[in-house]
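Board notes (copied after class):
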Amino acid sequence: MSKRGMKAVILAGGKGTRLAEETVALPKPMVEIGGRPILWHIMKMYAQHGINDFIICLGYKGLKIKEYFLNYALHNVDITIDTRGGLRVHQQATEDWHITLAETGEETMTGGRLRRVRNYLGDHDAFCMTYGDGVADIDIGESLRFHRRHGKLATVTAVRPLARFGSLDIRGGQVKRFVEKPVTEGGLINGGFFVLSPKVIDYIDGDATLWEKEPLEKLAADGELMAFEHPGFWQPMDTLRDRQNLEALWAQGNAPWKMWSDTDIQA
């Protein structure tokens, strides 16, 4: 087994068309919240649970993600430059992350991206997987323990989405109660944070396979998909409004997904 332990696969290849204002020049995972790419926030979430080995599936404008991590340390250390060719680094203050940046094709679907990184998963009995555009205050460690207890091939984190619109309590044509932002709308949905056995890749046919369709449907039909319910904060960044809401939470010092302190080593 790799000394690095548990791996986290992050799907970061989509075009983010509903966030076109931001994604013309950048891939969606590089759109910033509080001056950091949302991808960085997701990685920090996993790192707080001891997961520091990442496989990032690239696609649309993947070079931007490669450039960010190639210059990651340089951007976050003090240096002295001698214009005649000398360079002195004064400190090393970046996270201890091991990052594999895998080209998985610009048009490849979510399942296909996962299938393409099979060789990077090693011989672990389980790995984490998520999308590069959502944050939450999920107890990832507990989801791993839940996964190991039930012994099935797949665990999906189930969440209740926040309502996007105010709700009306109407009786006899009269509005009796107005709630601007109800806590949730509807039932539990796929929250996008998974714990998986490498065997799930056998459920993926090829590049055109959507992870959210045949593989998950077949896993459920086979009795191999379990739900880890998360009642807390969860927010994808699908639209400009979503980004603005996340930015506001961060600026107010009220970001529920920020489970690390400012004294932690960060970049």
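Comment from the instructor: The chain has a mean pLDDT of 87. The first strand starts at residue 7 and ends at 12.
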